[in-house]
Amino acid sequence: MDHHNGAARPLTALITGANRGIGRAVARELHGRGLRVVVTARDAAEASATAADLGPGARGLALDVTDPGGPARAAAVAGRVDVLVCNAGVLLDAGADPLSVSLDLVERTLNVNLLGTWRVAQAFVPAMVRRGWGRVAVVSSGTTAEFGGRLFAGTPGYSISKSALNGLVSLLAAQTEGTGVLVNAVNPGRVRTRMMPGQERLPEDAAPFIADVATLPDGGPTGGFLTEQRDRA
Ligand SMILES: NC(=O)c1ccc[n+]([C@@H]2O[C@H](COP(=O)([O-])OP(=O)(O)OC[C@H]3O[C@@H](n4cnc5c(N)ncnc54)[C@H](OP(=O)(O)O)[C@@H]3O)[C@@H](O)[C@H]2O)c1
Question: Is Oxidoreductase set as a keyword in this record (predicted)?
Fold first, then answer.
């Protein structure tokens, strides 16, 4: 395992939305790699049950990313967090049309996907900067402009939220450049979860790459939108 400044200590990772789907699989993957994990979820009982299922070295913590004071309270009890996986997200406007989508739905989407991640980053990244080491993996999406393409119009609020999230990653990476903190967006691809029940690929298939992004070696990329190179002959 990568140890900061030669200090032989396990890293601690905190994952949002880790009670199900991709977040749960990433928590399991990081735990399997020997990290201590803080499993967070809106529902405290689900967070604890998931942590208990992972076993020793995992603990559960309630965290709703839309709660303005939630991330700071979580940071106060979580202790040192070296690795942050911002995974919590919602897709509320599948099948909507940008010309008629309810902007209330868009606002709710932005509050979780963009501002939720921002709140969590504000609560945890400054301490990483002070310690001179940290990794942040932000779960983005292929619906985004990928810093310059075309947005997917079939989920307008979601696509906007994830594109803005990529922009947030760019800001955080610029602000932390040279501090030992690496911040990247990761595109998980399409994965069978509650959000995307019709997909073939399982969360455990997507988790190793997200875990790689969350544990990049020193000198690794920052400010990137990283996609696993699969299906290459
Ligand atoms: N599945 C895909 O194909 C796919 C593709 C691209 C990107 N993604 C992204 O991957 C991430 C995980 O999604 P998933 O596919 O695993 O979907 P999922 O099974 O619906 O899981 C979403 C997770 O986010 C949590 N969450 C929602 N609102 C929250 C809040 N306010 N505070 C804290 N947690 C909250 C959910 O908690 P509850 O259980 O309490 O609702 C759940 O744990 C999302 O950011 C999603 O946009 C998924």
Answer: yes
